[in-house]
Amino acid sequence: MIQFIAKRQNGATLIEVLIAVVVLSIGLLGLAGLQVTSVQSNHSAYQRSQATLLANDLADRMRANRTEALTNAYLTDYPTSSSSNAVTGTQAAKDKAEWLNSLARALPNGTGKVEKSGTLVIIHIRWNDNRGRIATSTAAADADTIFTYRTEI
Question: Would you kindly state where each structural domain of the chain is located, as residue ranges?
Fold first, then answer.
């Protein structure tokens, strides 16, 4: 009879180590991609939070100066984004200029629009959110983000 003597394997072969390294690296690349998406989403959420705070700021200014707010002194229609608006004139003009300056400083290409119907005020804030945008289509990348805030004064 022929006897086979089985050799005992000691350790892993080079191919097994290479396969383990490839699987691990693919997993780490997936985590890196997830981290990039997370940072983009967080930046976009930060900008939406800034828009919310700035819209609320103007609404509070309008409530504090209700007489002028009811006479349409705060109405504006998306001026060019600029942080050098002159803060002069009536209180409403000062409030509007300070608000537009804050929009331009806090948001990329940030500008705003104010509409009023009776005591209902609609505040629109528009900015470029390309840095935080996850969508890859060209049409979505070129579109500005618009935040709308409705309140009574």
Answer: 14-152
